[in-house]
Design brief:
Layout lengths: L1 H20 L13 E6 L16 E9 L2 E10 L20 H24 L12 H18 L2
Helix pairs in contact: 2-3
């Protein structure tokens, strides 16, 4: 029993040392150059050819000042470049399906929340997904990560 306890303690210590040396990913301290950086996610295309809901991409524009994220904007677009805004989810300017429109607008509203949370937390790992806006979340993480990569010194 004593040997097993010593072994587990040693194993835990080794794992801790290894993990500490791996860098810590997004939480590791970074040095950013002051400036404004813009990046775009890859295009998302729904696997269902008859359902184009969610298709598009996201664009993040963020500002770094004194090694901190001071501003962030996140907008999503249809594949043709049309902004996903207050009209997203409408058909020919009308709400044809109230449930679809509400879901689409929830995703649009999440864009500002993701951007604000990145400024508040100062790191991408501090931004959690919002239920009903997972595609936007993935686009945000990808684009914001690329923008932050541009800012690294």
């Amino acid at each position: 029993m004593k040997k097993r306890t010593v072994f587990l303690l040693a194993l835990t210590a080794v794992c801790g040392i290894c993990c500490a040396g791996c860098g810590g990913g997004d939480d590791a301290p970074k040095n950013y150059k002051d400036g404004t950086y813009t990046a775009q996610s890859e295009e998302y295309v729904n696997d269902d050819k008859d359902d184009t809901a969610g298709n598009g991409y996201g664009v993040v524009k963020l500002t770094i000042k004194d090694n901190k994220i001071t501003e962030c904007e996140f907008h999503t677009f249809e594949l043709d470049g049309t902004p996903k805004d207050e009209n997203y989810g409408k058909e020919n300017g009308e709400i044809a399906n109230r449930d679809f429109y509400n879901k689409a607008q929830k995703a649009v509203g999440a864009c500002d929340q993701y951007a604000a949370k990145l400024v508040e937390k100062g790191k991408l790992s501090g931004v959690d997904a919002i239920s009903g806006a997972t595609i936007n979340y993935n686009e945000f993480k990808e684009a914001a990560g690329a923008a932050l990569k541009q800012a690294e010194q």
